[in-house]
TrEMBL record:
CDD domains: PKCI_related. PROSITE patterns: HIT_1, HIT_2. Residues 4-112 form the HIT domain. A motif (Histidine triad motif) lies at residues 96-100. Pfam families: HIT. Its EC number is 3.-.-.-. It is an enzyme of class 3 (hydrolase). PANTHER family: HISTIDINE TRIAD HIT PROTEIN (PTHR23089). It comes from Novipirellula herctigrandis. This is HIT-like protein. One of its GO terms (molecular function) is hydrolase activity. The lineage of its organism: Bacteria, Pseudomonadati, Planctomycetota, Planctomycetia, Pirellulales. Keywords: Hydrolase. The keyword DNA-binding does not apply.
Amino acid sequence: MPSIFTKIIDREIPADIVYEDDECLAFRDITPKAPTHILVIPKREIVSLADLTDEDEKIVGHCILVAAKVAHSEGLAAGYRVVVNCGSDGGQEVPHLHFHILGGRQMTWPPG
Ligand code: DGP
């Protein structure tokens, strides 16, 4: 069954898309936890970090590079955080790998 993020990729549900290429999509989070909160996802359905295989090395690197480019284009020159929640203890709610870009405020450490 397609994840809600696959429905965003397929334009079955709307999203505020800020970047797209053949391999990935970036869109604004619907419940932002920071002034800028964008999700970068691979178009290929990968459930989580724990499901990665060797063949995913390129797409994961690509998503991180896109996250850095999107952060730059969003003007996050003061810094930002990229987060991947993995599994239930990691706080992952949507079973489609995604990289959170959070910025526009001071981040705290450790995260909750
Ligand atoms: P996580 O807890 O790491 O699985 O984060 C999932 C994020 O996805 C959460 O911050 C809210 C966001 N989200 C969930 N459903 C939608 C949606 O339909 N549209 C958008 N833009 N974001 C969504």
